[in-house]
Design a protein that fits this description.
Radius of gyration: 17 Å
Number of helices: 2
Oligomer: single chain
Helix content: over 70%
Structural class: mainly alpha
Number of strands: 0
Order of helices and strands: HH
Shape: flat
Mean pLDDT: 62
Length: 52
């Protein structure tokens, strides 16, 4: 039981680590989209978000 619990805890910690990284990437992409509106990157970014 102890080994299984340790494995589950590691998976949960990994998921917690991935969530903030994803939020940071989204914020960075959104900030970039605000700068590059004239270049039409919003369509590409929105497509990437939908694909995720």
């Amino acid at each position: 039981m102890g080994l299984k619990d340790d494995g589950r805890n590691k998976k949960r910690e990994g998921r917690k680590d991935q969530i903030p990284n994803g939020q940071f990437k989204l914020e960075k992409v959104l900030s970039d989209s605000r700068r590059m509106r004239d270049k039409g990157l919003i369509e590409k970014i929105s497509f990437l978000i939908i694909s995720i």
